Amino acid sequence: MAHALASVDTNAAPITQSLQLRDTLRQMLAVLEDERHALAGLEIDAIMACAVSKDSLCGRLDTTDHALVDEECRGLLDAARRLNEANRRVRNLIAANVAARLDAMTGQPALYRANAAPARIGLVR
């Protein structure tokens, strides 16, 4: 994982060439792959490092002129989108598992479920 994280340059100049865009997208793919491994191993420090790297790379990608996106870049963007979506689903599954375990331990309904009535911890009076 250190390879992808070490290659993220947060002070880089705006992207002005297709080659720079491709390199940045390849870095994003590497970070997303690292995130997948970190999620599989439940390595919180690595997950957080990937989040910081993804944020930095997104900031760099925001500087890109849309005219630079060619066919190869579209393929890299699509691959990154798919991998990010897969990682999001894994994160959501982990969060749901944690919520279920907390519910089981407390014997209470979820404390932070959308549109749910507020749960109370302790005895009902």
TrEMBL record:
InterPro entries, per database record: FlgN-like_sf
Coiled coil regions, renumbered to chain: 76-103
Top-rank taxon, per record: Bacteria
UniProtKB keywords: Cell projection, Cilium, Coiled coil, Flagellum
Protein name stated in the entry: Flagellar protein FlgN
Organism: Novosphingobium cyanobacteriorum
